[in-house]
Amino acid sequence: MAGSRLPRQLFLQGVAAVFMFAFASLYTQIPGLYGPEGILPARRTLRPQGKGRWQQLWETPTLLWEAPLLGLDTAQGLELLSLLGTVLALGALLTRPLRHPLVYLLLWAAYLSVCQVGQVFLYFQWDSLLLETGFLAVLVAPLGLPPNHKQAPQGRPGGVSPHEGLAFWLVRWLLFRLMFASGVVKLTSRCPAWWGLTALTYHYETQCLPTPAAWFAHRLPVWLHKLSVVATFLIEIAVPPLFFAPVRRLRLAAFYSQVLLQVLIVITGNYNFFNLLTLVLATALLDDTHLAAKSSTSRRKRTPSSWPKALLAVLALLLELAVYGLLAYGVVHCFGLEVDWEQHVIRSRTTFTFHQFSQWLKMVTLPTMWLGAASLAWELLTALWRWVQVRGSLQKLCAAVPLSVLGTATVALFLISLVPYSYMEPSSHGRLWTGAHRLFGTVEHLQLANSYGLFRRMTGLGGRPEVVLEGSYDGHQWTEIEFMYKPGNLSRPPPIVVPHQPRLDWQMWFAALGPHTHSPWFASLVLRLLQGKAPVIRLIQNHTPSYPFHKQPPTYVRAQRYKYWFSHPWEQGRWWRRQWVEEFFPSVSLGDPALDVLLGQFGLQDKSPPRARGSSNTLSQALHWIRRQLSPLEAPALLWGLLGAVGAIKVMQALLGPQSLPRSKEEKHKPASQEHSVAASKQASPAPNISSSSQTPRRKKSP
Predict the structure, then answer these.
(1) 349-394 pLDDT, tens per residue?
(2) Per residue in 405-463, pLDDT tens?
(3) 467 phi, psi to nearest 5 deg
(4) CB 508 within 8 A of CB 469
(5) Hey, what's the signal peptide range on this chain (predicted)?
(6) pTM of the model
(7) Which run of H or E residues covers position 677?
(8) 211-239: average pLDDT
């Protein structure tokens, strides 16, 4: 494989950016979700069970156990972790020395600590994905800046450590598991929309938080929607095995297919940091040669210097053509693609049965594991070969230590990941090595490896269900309580909130899919609205005057279930249309026995009063001051402000970097003939062959 120093740096910067967005987004919602007056107060989740300190920390791994030592309650500890995580991630994003394993270990530990008390509002697959990616970043990050070494024998840069890039392979394996499983579960779920290729005729309208572009995408012709579903299956099921292809151009083609899919999702839906995180994982498919942005002309001039290289180039080209031809044939055969020249459309249909797909999945699940094992074995052999080339006994010994540690960790994490990966095919899961099951069971609570499968079933086939809260002072005149982000007002366009995730709005979407008893937290939300708790109100409307009961809490609260659809093109001034379905939550008031029964049934009645916050605590006062300064800002504006600040600093770094400084006097007086002679000697030297990934030299890390 070609050098991977530039992709690794890009990956580490991307992970830092995602952590920054995740921590900052969560910080804005902590008081309303987890504060003493929040929907699910976090202090109820951490109660000592009389166990030893280290046993307690291992069973519930969260740094928030230590919050009382700082004079903070659990919610304040959450705020502190979120602020520190945001600042630390921002530093790692901007400065290369902070892209250190210790920094990423702290980020991972902080987010794991948050997830331990996050309850249902942090039960999303992208939270698990961020934890798994964050731990891989600990292994990928270099311990220090690479020294400048002289050129090693056989044209290999001597500055390349044997273990470099070994853990980076796990990122590619994680991307494969994510995409392949996400494609497979769409068909194993037996969802009629996915099997009928009509899923996208509903998706844009029924997804949690659509963007304005989703309204226009929803109006595309049905045949194009069905063709897009076929393309989705191609990108998520057929393309991922190419992540391990020996031909570099196949891996690059797989990379750009993933980029295309994620960009289209970003345009039409608000999926917080998930798409950015997936793009960050896709950097494992890149190499230094591609990121160096060499001109196509210079590449065209490079010709193989010997017949073996020319033969390898021809074989690689033939393999590429065979793969593309096989993919095209498979798509046409499996989805019956036909061109209707009269109506100028491409017709598609699923030509295989569920039984045939199940048999195919049973046949390929174990081979895909062996494919990953073979690819990992190649990486290990490559690292071992680089170690053999290290000169000097002391240097060999020093290089053997990190190689042994990272090699063992990489193999262990690969074995652990096989267990959740095999969940999609039960028979293969049962045939796994028992040692892998035991190893996974030991560290499962650390979320080092997780199962994935996004968009398993298409919901809202008869219209998107939507819960609308209403309040009243007399029980007769009802006023709707409109959320900032989720659909409600028929005339309000869908918002753009990415990379922020309004977690209450997301859970409201899930709550609408079933009865309110399936979402116990909803009763607590109703209670807080009846009490007029400001932190919860700010989750609904950050601008207080926009909340209809900002002067006095409502006496009664209820919820109705509606079906929502995108408006028709001729309905001017409207983005949605809706129809009432049923009552979702009955009308209740404070002290209502029905509400008290629900709260008691779900264990949401917290009779113990919250601990008084120490106003004399300097740290507590500092947290309170920061909260006061940032509370007027809406979360998307805060995150976009962070993004703008990062962009401005990056531009300044580029303008003031070493490359823009004037040359020294010696360089200025350097004879031009000497410069020309150096350039000529470089052109005369044989160029490395870029058609074979294993022969491309690694580049040094960019400054």
Answers:
(1) 999 999 999 999 999 999 999 999 999 999 999 999 999 998 888 8
(2) 999 999 999 999 999 999 999 999 989 999 999 999 999 999 999 999 888 889 888 89
(3) -95, 125
(4) no
(5) none
(6) 0.90
(7) helix 672-684
(8) 97
The owner of tokens 């997804």 is 207
Let me know: does 474 contact 532? Beta carbons within 8 Å. no
Structural contact between residues 351 and 333, judged by C-beta atoms closer than 8 angstroms = yes
Residue holding tokens 């929040």? 38
> In the numeric block, which tokens belong to residue 2?
């070609």
Residue 193, both tokens: 């929309």
Question: How far, in Å, CA of 350 to CA of 640, rounded?
Answer: 42
* Amino acid 658: pLDDT: 62
As a whole number of Å, the CA-based R_g of the chain is: 28
The three-class DSSP label of residue 445 is helix
Report the alpha-carbon distance of residue 487 to residue 496 in Å, rounded. 12
When pLDDT is cut at 50, 70 and 90, the band that residue 51 belongs to is confident
Tokens 């995150």 map to which residue? Answer: 639
DSSP labels, 564-624: EEEPPTTSTT-SEEEEEEEEEEEEE-TT-HHHHHHHHHTT----SPPPPP-TT-HHHHHHH
d(C-alpha 688, C-alpha 682), whole Å: 12
All residues at 6 or more sequence positions from 254 whose CB lies less than 8 Å from its CB, including other chains: 239, 240, 242, 243, 245, 285
C-alpha–C-alpha distance, residues 196 and 351, integer Å: 10
**Residue 198 structure tokens:** 């009509």
Is the Cβ–Cβ distance between 177 and 369 less than 8 Å?
no
CA-to-CA distance for 282 and 254, rounded, in angstroms?
A: 9
Q: 3-state class of 466 per DSSP?
A: strand
| Cβ neighbours of residue 241 closer than 8 Å, sequence gap 6 or more | 176, 180, 368, 371
pLDDT for the residue 3: 78
Give the CA distances from residue 320 to residues 143, 313, 327, 410, 606, in Å, rounded to whole numbers and listed in that order. 38, 11, 11, 29, 63
Q: 556-566 and 479-481 as β-strands: parallel, antiparallel, unpaired?
A: unpaired
